[in-house]
Amino acid sequence: MSAFAAPRVFAPVLTPFDATLAVDIPQLVAYCRWLVGQGAGLALFGTNSEANSLSVAERRAVLERVCAADIDPAHLLPGTGACALPDAIELTRHATQAGCAGVLMLPPLYYRGVSDDGLFAYYSEVIEAVGSNDLRVLLYHIPQLSGVPISHALIERLVAAYPRTVVGIKDSSGDWANTAGLLARFPGFKVFPASEALLGLALPLGAAGCISATANLQPAAIAEVLAAATLEARSACVERVSTIRLALQALPMIPALKAVVAHYSGHAGWARVRPPLVPYGALDARALLAQLRALGFAMPALAQAAAR
Questions:
Q1: pTM of the entire structure?
Q2: Is 111 a catalytic residue?
Q3: Hey, which family's this protein in (predicted)?
Q4: Which of 19, 85, 176, 237 makes a 20 to 30 Å CA pair with 135?
């Protein structure tokens, strides 16, 4: 299995929009710098980035602007999965040429009952078309949204065919038995649970870290979990980050996260989402912020970063 030199906590970076619903590049770059400064990698174009509401041209332009902002590409794990195979190839090639640590690849959406043979062909076509020894692929398993599960048998086939390229997976299934099964069956494979609340269970079994929606809010605290020197210290850190995760995970995640960032950054525009999503209600946002404050939550230096 090839090396995957990258941070151990990644945020699926929220995407700010301006009043015309175009991507607000200055705010995005400032936020990316804040996340990196807090110890997180950047999983641009993840689910919580509203990636499926962004065009291929927008995703290319955003990645180029982030790279031009002197953010180390080794911190970048952009999502490049797409329904259309040519789009997936273009995005994956673009990210690889930019020097990103790897790419996070959803399976193609919409079609149901797709076979492992079809999914293997999809990933194989992308890998062969990109044709780069530098490409590192992390699969993205989120069947409750994609409708297309990534089976253990498929992973086994992909790793056998592309051992230097297919190096890990984000497991967003919410099924701990699946995560534990991945860790047991594929030693050395980079397994990233999608919730920091699972790190107490997953790290002793060999998890690589986590790629979590709420890493957008508490990246440094999650990084502390991963850096904890003792089991006791890790348990205390997991307990702290889990309280924040639990406060948010039952909510409409993207609008709620953006409402929190809008408050702590001082930029109300952060609360915007692209249709069909709708912004988080003002009363609900105030109640959430009060709950988070009661838990001792803060986003240190975000307002200063956003003002630069």
A1: 0.94
A2: no
A3: Belongs to the DapA family.
A4: 176
